[in-house]
Queue: 3 jobs
Job 1
Amino acid sequence: MDWPWLLLAVIVLIALAVPALAGEQVADFAAGLRPPGPGNPLGTDHFGYDLAVRSAAALRISLLVAAVCAVVATVLGLLVGTAAALAGGWVDAVVMRAVDGFNALPHLVVGIVIAAMWRGAPLAIIASIALTHWPAVARVVRAELLAATGAGWIETARLAGASRWFIARHHLLPAVTGQALVAMVMLLPHAVWHESTLSFLGVGFSPDRASLGTLLGQARGDVLTGAWWTLAVPAAALVVTALTFAAAGTRLQRRIEPPAGRVW
């Protein structure tokens, strides 16, 4: 197993296991802002929560939101890209101009507007991220399908009597599945960053619901008092997670090759 996937498995395991093993935490202001040491290896936050457990719980929420956003954006992009490539002609031109229009919108600004309308609602956060990231997937899927339909082995299969369903199932679907999977994995770090940004700016999750963005937002005031660990721990979790997803996506892209096709 490649190291990015191994590290990613460790990150997911930490996000799931640490909060479950630690149980429910209770705020203890008397224990607030303790530096890393015995009993609290990563210190405590402003409310007295163990920062290791709190960060793991926040990571779990951020990963869940990122995964849902990546799946939704990939499905939308797959549907739009497939429709444009298979329809062709003026339908393809109109759809791709619409995709270009969506892609030209500033993602963060659109995300802030959508999330601010239903502040703290998970569905609004997911919608604000997914609806701004599907155009890239649509363009990749369309390009792969156009390349596949123009290949000689597709025409050979058609002349050999293969049905449209057979060609779509055995040639076109394998041509886009790998790239769509890569696009979904590459969307994950973007989704993690956007969710964290929205929560940091106060239009994402509410402060009582731990996510990496809310922890970073709460740490702004604590850092001024010298409690650097309240910012360093969630920031390190965010950076390591995003870089690991990006590295895993790159490795996956290198492994996937265009299908050679089969002549029937």
Job 2
Amino acid sequence: MNAFLLGILSSLVTSALLLTLSLLRASRPLWWLTAACSWFTGTGLHRVYRLQSAAERNLGQDLARARWVKVMAGRGNILTREAFAPLWSGDISPASVQILLPDPDTPHDSWLDRRSHEVSRFDPGFTSDLLRSQVRANIGYLSQAARTQHNIQLHSYNLPHTCRVIATDKVAYLTFYSDNAHGRNSPCLYARAPGLLYTIALQQFDTAWANSTETRPTPRH
């Protein structure tokens, strides 16, 4: 029994060390070590991007191969950038695209306001209504960019801003938000299915989706 427990402990320690190295260095030679450790522990973790923004090139490649796509974001700026452009143009067309953005029309003292207050503590240019206006702008962008697409569903939620999830039928990009940094400056975990982290990412999305409401933005003319 002691040997069994020691083996579990050693594998956990190894996982922690490799994850720490990946976060500190974020270099490609360490990715294979992370993936090997992931296979051994069953977590499904294959890469760690030191900054969330560094994952966007690989994200575009995964979206191109996806059968379905799920996105839960705290603001939605990623949806207006190059990685998602082929979805809106129709160059790639998964069977379904589900998008969750915060509800910008919730009463004050909502979870959106609480996140805005967190960000304003380390970003002096972040006013109380800025996050709401940015979410509204991104909803407006989606209504225009995806106006000819019939496989896209947009919902809004009023839940704690704990993470960003971008998932396909094969992979998930998971960023846990902190109270002292923008999401773009936070580490991004890349997990493959099957695996614990991939399952957690889908659970996060599905829980929020079940507690969301459909958004029907008015198209711009």
Job 3
Amino acid sequence: MVSPQTLSEAERRLVAGWAADCAERVLAVFEAERPEDGRPRAAIARTRGYARGERDTAGEIRDRFGGVAATEGVSPAAAAAARAAGQASAVAHMGAHALGAAGYAALAAERCAPDHPDAASAELDWQWARMTPAVRAALRSLPPLGENRAGPLGPGLLARGRLGEVIRDLQSRLQDVARLGLP
């Protein structure tokens, strides 16, 4: 049985480009602390290649970035930026990781600006402005965070704490637009 968090291959390619945009926007946060570590940048480049159809799904899954290793010994903001890249690279495996990429990117922005309580919301606004109607439709088809155990949107890491709040905010925006009948 296929998880509702998977999305079709065409939808995964669509949301992969958007997820790469989200991760790349905060990449400098990681690179400021670890300029010699090219893993997040390489993960984003591979994700873009997947989105353009230059990489196949199996190859991208095989080569996806292990974000945890790049997060050791860096600040919480840099760790969130590296995790955004890792989540983006995992979109080929399961489309729901796009929301993880966006959530971690917003968290990185927030952690860089502790004196600006609206930093995560401002980052979500930026992400929203880059969503095409097709990306919104694909992301809207994903189950609500924490309600389906068959993937990253289950009750695990993405559903917890501030990260979970940020992803729920993004999913709420997607549903609000749908209720208004907008693409």
